[in-house]
Amino acid sequence: MALLTVQNITKYFGEYKALDNVSLDVPEKSIFGLLGPNGAGKTTLIRIVNQIYFADQGEVLFKGEKINTGHIANVGYLPEERGLYKKMKVGEQLLYLAQLKSIPKDKALEQIKDWMIRFEMKGWWNKKVEDLSKGMQQKVQFIATVLHQPSLIILDEPFSGFDPVNADHIKNEILKLREAGTTVIFSTHRMESVEELCDDIALIHKSKLVLEGQKKVIKEKFRDHTFELFHRSPFEISDNGGLKLLSQDKTKELNYQSIIHLPDDDINAALRQIADKTEIISFRERIPTIHDIFIKEVTQNDHE
Fold this sequence. Notes:
Blueprint: E1 2-13, E2 16-27, E3 31-35, H1 42-49, E4 57-62, E5 65-66, E6 75-78, H2 90-100, H3 105-118, H4 134-146, E7 152-156, H5 164-179, E8 183-187, H6 191-197, E9 200-205, E10 208-214, H7 215-221, E11 226-231, E12 244-250, E13 256-261, H8 267-275, E14 280-285, H9 290-302
Parallel strand pairs: 3-8, 3-9, 6-7, 7-8
Antiparallel strand pairs: 1-2, 1-4, 4-5, 9-10, 11-13, 11-14, 12-13
């Protein structure tokens, strides 16, 4: 079931078309990756979902109902441009933001303290935001985004400013949120995070949706029957029924690495043919990464 449905959204800024008839479904209780190059239209779409912008055409549905101001309490939004009050102290700022979301003071204090313990921030309550590093400020804003326990959380470049340790901490919290039933949309340029976290993805390029679906289904669709082979000695093969040697290089261990294309109808027969020429050490299929798919689709669309 889709928690959020985007139907035929088009948005202009003057003569510039920022979104062109974009439609997509965000499944409930999933992590949904919204991908695209800079300027593709991702942030514009996020702002339409958050009712910061209004679409010129199309509509957004939240649980089947046209989105309206009554849904704002169900959404947590972490924008790419951070928006904390620099002169306020961390504790009083989080309490203020929680109360803006109608969380009673006692409950807000309890939840803030819990999150500060989780993020190893117990000593930060009286620190001013302007005295924090970018990564520390990001932690504060992440807490402010999730504090009211919304059913939909939208994260725009959530890992910006984090070192690897804190980035992993945020990833783990995102996974816990999904396990608790929260739907998460996140926009990022870090394709390794998409690989680790996302159940579904959508790729927007030049204002149009060019790819959408379950991550595992999309990766299966882009399989090209390319395999990586490590072996003891060099070999040659002729183009034989789809079996092709694409490259072959000597490794530091004085073995060889070959990239081959195998026919999908009889992989075992192709491997036996190679085994007659060299000793095979290891063999694995090269499944395209989301990074590979992203580059391929963007490049292809650039030439259309």
